[in-house]
User: Which sequence fits this backbone?
């Protein structure tokens, strides 16, 4: 049987370490391009205010980047340390984008970021601009390969099961890389990063306007960031829409859960604006609905059905029954038992192997997975869909936060560009400052939606999460979880303190200061 | 496909080796430099000067580790799964150490007071020393076999938990290997400091390079003699064709002096450890005589041959099991599928030369002697 405490602790550790890492990633993805744009303007116009902007935002970028790099390695390691059966079972496919990420993207980003920080006086303007651009490109390509890997977890295309190796193997590299799910996820995630960085830059600039400092720099920064933000919002909305269609096609349970759709509706289905889901009874205790909208969002049509959770659970029940046959046949084949009719077992396995993963769900729910009772199959089916509470509200949190962000940024642009009195609007400037955490929260909500919506699977329909863990003890995991939380909390406090300190200090005005190198060549950042 | 499966499996044994050597030569070097900061620098300005020689490069260097990890994940998923989960606490220690480095490199510059600098420089030293030691200790344990095994579903298990799993790793032979790793990398680091700092600092690195190089040679020879007494693993037969247990159905026997079997079978291979020793001696004397450039060349070769010495001793094994010999992982059964190895090889052929090219460019452009009174402004 499965040790559920061990599984839960493994999941909490990965969730905490990845959500923590994902505080820093979106800002890196976006601010690197924002700095590139500012530097481009500097190179074109020669105005030193843009160079000062690059250096100031670069300094904040550095504080963020250091902790992002540190906590990113944790995640790569954790696939091996905490999810060793996952690594064994899908490493043949999943490892490839991770390795190429290192070779193609991370080398690029990491080599050039060193030069970005230390090379302001070493390189010509044009060369330094290229260095900044390559840093930004590297970090974004990095995100692409990670999301190809993650996209495959959501939509495991281009892979087949090998009974000899008891693992999944790649059938087409290009189908893996060009997976439509991965591409949409990539653009959606980097767009979220661009929005995050833009709101961060706007909020910090608003602080300077409020304090009546660095006015020129702040206004220019807001102009660049707001423009960037609007473009990113367009990309984000577009790819969000594409993702919705893809989820409907590939992960109907995730879609039904994030929309709290228990009953399949007559098309076009109505969209739930707000609901109080009742998970135990699989119904909504309360719901406000907008007619037609879900059908339109999820299928782009008036006549296609969006299946509800109850129907999906019923379908999964059959898949579990079929999967159990495949799983039992596979075990018989691998048992080495002389009495097994190998040809018959192989034929049975091949007939039902599409649902092998569903058969594995019984490892958690059945006392004997080879002979599950009807009740156990029903319990496994009930558990084959994600939590409505988490996904429904994570999705609405993301949507709500993005709406607020859109309004706030539009307001900033309106007052700065049209009314030209943003610097006088103290109240609104305070709102801009207070808006800084919103995109970070939206990104976290998006991550929670994507990964909790994938449950109970580590690889959708292929490998249940509870079978993906390492064979560690509860003691190991309890200690490491406490260790991670403790150290990460200390790091976050240090990071936030330095960030606030650097912002309060503000940018240096290079027209006023001379070459004040304080004792050393190491003032890297 | 372009290459036979077996050919690719051998190629990937070489490529993983290349990535690990790349990691040792670049990231290992900057870890060594960080470890030596307090030894060669007498005040915070000098420390800043020493650190400034690696500040532009440490992050790119670290990607060798990340890429080696990713490549093992992709090319040897079973090794990735069995080693990372089995060595859980060793890995977390390494993680803790390498968390400290990016933070120290960046955050030390945000305040100018001495105690702030000193705290981060200590964090940098600790964070750099631990991985150098642990990776050597890991190699020492690999040569003795690790207590792991695969069950019938190819899930990887490991003897013990928390301290009962961690402490046995710190056995005398493994610690000896850890010290070889530390000393050989410190030689490289001391030579780098000589090469890239002004004379006042560089002169202090000379005896360090010499001493570390000589100690490396002595410890390496002791480790070799000691390893001769160990039993090693001999692959009698792979799992039979059509077996559903491609890893555990193979036949492995333990043989006396087994770690030297390959060297006895093919005596020419003895040049590998001989060259590792000779190059380290040359590096040590170059360090003593202030010929740091040549010294780095020799110490790099020595590091490569030292890693190769262990790899040859194990071949075709990459991760032998002391618990269940049949669960030992070899390059024939720990690998990915034919297609994955093939595609990954293309990726390496395309991207490694590109990465090497811009890495060399970056080093060349940031070249120069760092001094505490400063010649170059990095701000």
Assistant:
């Amino acid at each position: 049987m499965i040790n559920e405490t061990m599984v839960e602790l493994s999941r909490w550790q990965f969730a905490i370490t990845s959500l923590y890492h994902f505080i820093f990633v979106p800002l890196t993805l976006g601010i690197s391009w924002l700095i590139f744009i500012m530097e481009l303007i500097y190179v074109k116009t020669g105005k030193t205010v843009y160079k000062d902007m690059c250096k100031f935002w670069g300094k904040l970028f550095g504080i963020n980047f250091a902790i992002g790099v540190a906590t990113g390695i944790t995640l790569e390691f954790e696939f091996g340390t905490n999810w060793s059966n996952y690594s064994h079972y899908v490493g043949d496919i999943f490892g490839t984008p991770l390795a190429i990420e290192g070779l193609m993207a991370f080398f690029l980003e990491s080599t050039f970021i060193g030069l970005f920080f230390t090379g302001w006086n070493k390189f010509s303007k044009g060369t330094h601009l290229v260095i900044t651009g390559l840093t930004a490109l590297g970090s974004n390509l990095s995100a692409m390969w990670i999301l190809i890997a993650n996209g495959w977890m959501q939509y495991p295309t281009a892979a087949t099961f090998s009974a000899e190796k008891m693992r999944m193997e790649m059938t087409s590299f290009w189908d893996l890389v060009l997976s439509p799910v991965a591409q949409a996820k990539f653009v959606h995630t980097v767009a979220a990063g661009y929005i995050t960085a833009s709101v961060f830059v706007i909020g910090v600039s608003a602080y300077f306007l409020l304090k009546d400092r660095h006015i020129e720099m702040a206004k220019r920064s807001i102009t660049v960031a707001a423009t960037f933000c609007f473009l990113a919002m367009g990309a984000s909305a577009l790819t969000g829409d594409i993702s919705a269609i893809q989820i409907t096609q590939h992960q109907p349970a995730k879609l039904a859960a994030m929309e709290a759709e228990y009953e399949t509706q007559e098309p076009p289905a109505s969209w739930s604006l707000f609901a109080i889901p009742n998970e135990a009874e699989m119904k909504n205790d309360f719901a406000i609905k907008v007619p037609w909208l879900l059908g339109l969002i999820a299928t782009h049509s008036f006549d296609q059905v969006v299946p509800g959770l109850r129907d999906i659970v019923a379908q999964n029940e059959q898949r579990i029954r079929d999967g159990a046959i495949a799983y039992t046949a596979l075990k018989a084949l691998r048992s080495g038992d002389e009495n097994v009719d190998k040809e018959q077992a192989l034929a049975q396995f091949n007939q039902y192997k599409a649902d092998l993963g569903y058969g594995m769900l019984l490892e958690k729910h059945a006392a004997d997975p080879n002979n599950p009772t009807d009740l156990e199959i029903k319990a496994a089916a009930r558990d084959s869909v994600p939590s409505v509470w988490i996904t429904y509200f994570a999705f609405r949190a993301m949507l709500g936060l993005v709406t607020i962000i859109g309004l706030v940024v539009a307001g900033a642009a309106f007052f700065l560009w049209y009314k030209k009195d943003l610097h006088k609007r103290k109240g609104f400037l305070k709102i801009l400052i207070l808006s800084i955490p919103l995109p970070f929260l939206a990104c976290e909500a998006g991550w929670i939606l994507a990964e909790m919506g994938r449950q109970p699977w580590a690889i959708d329909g292929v490998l249940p999460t509870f079978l993906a863990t390492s064979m560690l003890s509860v003691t190991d995991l309890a200690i490491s979880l406490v260790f991670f939380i403790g150290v990460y909390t200390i790091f976050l406090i240090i990071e936030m303190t330095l960030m606030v300190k650097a912002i309060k200090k503000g940018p240096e005005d290079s027209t006023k200061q001379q070459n004040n190198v304080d004792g050393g060549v190491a003032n890297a950042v | 496909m372009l290459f036979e499966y077996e050919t690719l499996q051998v190629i990937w044994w070489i490529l993983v080796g290349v990535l690990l050597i790349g990691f040792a030569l670049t990231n290992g070097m900057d870890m060594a430099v960080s470890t030596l900061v307090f030894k060669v620098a007498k005040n915070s300005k000098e420390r800043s000067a020493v650190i400034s020689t690696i500040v532009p490069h440490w992050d790119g260097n670290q990607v060798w580790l990340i890429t080696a990890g990713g490549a093992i994940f992709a090319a040897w998923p079973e090794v990735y799964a069995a080693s990372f989960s089995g060595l859980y606490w060793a890995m977390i220690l390494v993680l803790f150490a390498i968390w400290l480095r990016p933070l120290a490199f960046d955050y030390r510059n945000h305040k100018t007071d001495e105690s702030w600098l000193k705290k981060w420089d200590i964090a940098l030293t600790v964070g750099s020393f631990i991985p150098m030691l642990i990776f050597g200790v890991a190699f020492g344990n690999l040569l003795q076999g690790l207590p792991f095994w695969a069950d019938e579903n190819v899930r990887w298990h490991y003897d013990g938990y928390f301290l009962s799993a961690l402490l046995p790793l710190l056995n005398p032979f493994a610690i000896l290997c850890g010290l070889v790793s530390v000393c050989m990398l410190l030689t490289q680091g001391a030579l780098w400091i000589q090469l890239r700092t002004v004379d006042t600092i560089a002169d202090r690195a000379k005896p360090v390079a010499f001493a570390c190089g000589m100690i490396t040679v002595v410890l390496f020879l002791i480790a070799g003699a000691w390893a001769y007494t160990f039993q090693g693993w001999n692959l009698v037969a792979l799992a039979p064709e059509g077996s559903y247990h491609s890893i555990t159905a193979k036949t492995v026997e333990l043989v006396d002096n087994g770690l030297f079997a390959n060297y006895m079978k093919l005596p020419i291979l003895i040049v590998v450890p001989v060259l590792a020793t000779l190059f380290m001696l040359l590096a040590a004397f170059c360090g003593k005589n202030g010929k740091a450039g040549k010294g780095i060349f020799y110490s790099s070769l020595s590091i490569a041959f030292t890693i190769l010495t262990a790899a040859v001793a194990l071949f075709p094994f990459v991760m032998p099991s002391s618990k269940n010999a049949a669960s030992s992982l070899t390059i024939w059964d720990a690998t990915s599928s034919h297609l994955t190895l093939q595609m990954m090889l293309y990726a390496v052929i395309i991207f490694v030369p590109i990465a090497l090219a811009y890495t060399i460019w970056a080093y060349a452009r940031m070249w120069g002697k760092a001094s505490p009174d400063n010649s170059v402004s990095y701000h």
